[in-house]
Amino acid sequence: MLDDVIKAYNEAVLDTDRALALQIVADAVAQGISPEDIVFKVVIPGLDLMVKAISEGFDTNLAQHFMTSQIAADVSERMLVLFKTPPEIVGQVIIGTAAGDLHTLGKRIVIGCLKAQMIEVTDLGVNVSAEKFVNEAVARKAQVIGVSAMMVHTARSENGALKVRQLLKERGLEHKIKLVVGGAPFRYDPELYKMVGADAWAENGVSALKVIMDCIKGVKA
Amino acid sequence: MTTSMDRLVAAANGQIIDHIPVFCNLLDQGARELGLSIEDYFSKGEYVAEGQLRMLEKYGHDNVWSLFYVGKEAELFGCKKICYANDGPPNVEDFIIHSYDDIEKLQVPDDISTHPAFVETAKCLEILKREVGGKVPICAYLTASMSLPAILMSMEKWMELLMIGEPEVRDLLLEKCSNFFRKEIEAYRNAGADILVYADPYGSTDIIPMRVFKELSLKWMKRDLEPGGLEGVVYYVGGARLNSVAEQVINEVGINAYYPGPLDDIGESMRIVNNRALCAGVINDIRLLDWTPDEVRTEVQRIVQGGLQVSNKFFFGTVVMPYGIPDENIKAMINAAKEFGRLSLPASD
User: Between chains, do A188 and B83 touch, taking CB under 8 Å as contact?
Assistant: First the structure.
């Protein structure tokens, strides 16, 4: 039965049909599938499947990324309160948009995916200073700082990711905190992340999940 | 002497007079030409017109813009807060729509041509029309009803309403945006704009699923454009890709000019359009920040030859043209587009 649930859930997500996905999960729980299995055997593998599909060139769109993230976050939130014991937190991430940048959609997609994966996320909002990114990361013992920038001048700004890198270096934090960037300018120039001092970049909000997971593992190793 | 308008008309008829039309979206760069801050530059229509004319003289491309910045459309709805940068385009800082209740209250201006937020644009258009009207295509940027909500409520909130919100609320907003569009395109036409860039990133399946494109984008596109007709309209999807929807827009809406995204395969774009309309070859202009002039030239050659191999109903274009692009790269791009755009290669099957 779990296989049928997984298949139906993944199809609903791909079709951006949130109502159907939630119904499939509700029916599965009513039929005895545990909330833990819903999260760890349906939702998280579903996210991984989407990440893999995108990495293999499957043509997806922004709305699918948004819905994948929202459905995963919605279902996880509903299931977590039903868990017998609280799940282990995989990592801590600080996220926000670069100084001068007010675009929030990409950040929201990333946050939804991370939360579904049991990663604690602190959302610093928009137009975040480099100092705030680093101070919050230190205060919350985060393994990753995620900087989102939708415009060329905010992606490349000396007050954005470049300054976060500079502060991490000055404070001797580079081995403890990784810097991940994302947003349209990075998609149109795949080498840009290196120029702004990031450790990694993600082409879209869903793919950011794997990139950030890898960074968390790297820091913890 | 051949004018830019002559080149464009020739291209629309599948001919090249001297070279293909070379369109370049130089906007913020006008501030540098005039030695002004970006905020000061966009404060007066005279400055923007002067900036456009100076850049036309300097670079020798084939179009001028009446666009200040995209957030101007939000100002027509009452937005008062724009975030200015020193080295990039201004952005909407305070969205007009904070909650779905605000959609009910949203007022479409009765007359855009007399709206205070249009005064400077009208001045700009008046100067451009006086100085180069009829000789150089004057471009206007008009956001489609399906995409306009992104600057009224943010991309995030619009995506949320579009994908999981109440259809009645969504449709009310779309109707208001479409009503606005109809008035806006009329105002721009009356003020002297020749090229009406119909900006619709939400009309690309990079942003929305094909199902939503068919159900909503096409429907609202038809409604937006129905009263004023298609004269001078260019279908533009910003940085997104066009190819997957081009056939449907041609068949169902009938727009006569298409502007693919920089990540579209230009040969494929031209084959889809298939001589039924004018089509642009568009450079990934973010890379102009770091490429050498030789690299720029090579990329322009690839794009222009790729387009002309299929048809002469072709022109060259850019997208965002970041402020920091070095002058020599802008010149290298435009010169290369003219150089390779002179070659009329035999069309391949």
Answer: no
